[in-house]
Write a structure and sequence with these properties.
With 455 residues, the chain is α+β, with helices and mostly antiparallel strands. It is 24% helix and 35% strand. The longest helix has 21 residues. 41% of the residues are buried.
Length: 455
Amino acid sequence: MNTALTPDVPAADDSQARLDHLEAIAARLLERCRASGATQAEVSCTEERGLHVGVRMGSVETVESTRDRGIGVTVYFGQRKGSASTADLREESLEATVAQACAIAGFTEDDPAAGLADAALMATDLREFDSWHPWALDADRAIDLALACETAGRDCDARIGNSDGASIGSGQSLSVYANSHGFVGRDRDTLHSIGCALIAGQGESMQRDGWYSVGLAESDLESPAAIGRHAAQRALARLAPRQVATGEYPVLFSNEMARSLIGHLLGAVSGGALYRRASFLVDSAGTQLFPDWFSIHECPFLPRGLRSAAFDAEGVATRESALVEDGVLQRYVLGSYSARRLGLATTANAGGVHNLEVAANAGDFDAMLRGMGRGLLVTELMGQGVNNITGDYSRGAAGFWVEDGAISHAVDGITIAGNLKAMFRDIEAVGSDVDPRSHICTGSILIGKMTVAGG
């Protein structure tokens, strides 16, 4: 069984030629938009290829090979907007797509915020960030790797009696964005993953957990055997959970779960929520939301960053900047449309944020446990109990009870509750144990006090 993450010989890389083809299509479409009378236009062209293999209990369950493409056209007639899309690259289909976008614009009302981002903001330094690392992976080898991952986990301990399976994924994406300002931006990215989920115990005492690894390059991935063993250890650790008395306790969000807290912040400071007045952080720019040592910086230029980019989805040049500094919210997360609706300037975040780094003020995970002393470690969250308008937070959770700075026993079937404003304010520490599997780079986060309801 071939399980090493090495010897595949890469096929000839035709990505630049494929990008050239997409760019030529974009140019033709923009010319058609101009000929149709559009005052502004933008075109996005994407092409994706992927392989995904899933196994369970030693048998192959899925082998999927995908090849997708899409063309999106948006036209503006003054401040009236129309959009249409197609996956058909035949000339007659492309021409019909432009015609459809123009026809839709004819039925829309003027929108004062509509239009391309300002021409002066277009990116000019169109660097790449080491994000293109194709993996010459065929289905047979992907199956070998997935089976090796699951087998390593199942063989780890006799109490691992079942499996939710292991999977291998490899994908590559090419995209071209062009608009009538003359901007043309090209991106190429790869993303690979290995994951495994195992079940420990029997009957009503069964517990499930897993582990996964993601990276832009094959060499960034953990080995299949290590992933399987880690999945087994996590499932075994959850056996024999006990109850927790309802009360107010410190809560430590593991680095995986801490990302969700930053995600709630992003949702609340995004332009769409703000101009709709559907956020608990309306009119909060410039106010203190976090302790004065807390900061979050956006870093779009990280080599091999999971969300590095020289331009956003509108062609606006990205830039390094603080989202939170000294606990103060410095800005919102805006594209040009939401910025205009708010009377502000775009923050080059059309399409989302680019590599957020949450600064640590504490040590590694073990140090965070010792610092908490006694409380709840959350390693899983369930449900959608977050009200973005009020900030009220109530979610099902599972994890571990901590006594004397060390894990005591597993807990599940609990609920943790609070309000996000208070939770942000009550953050006591951010660990150095950053989880590299996301563009939101944060260590574990300790909140001084939350309501914990036992099962």
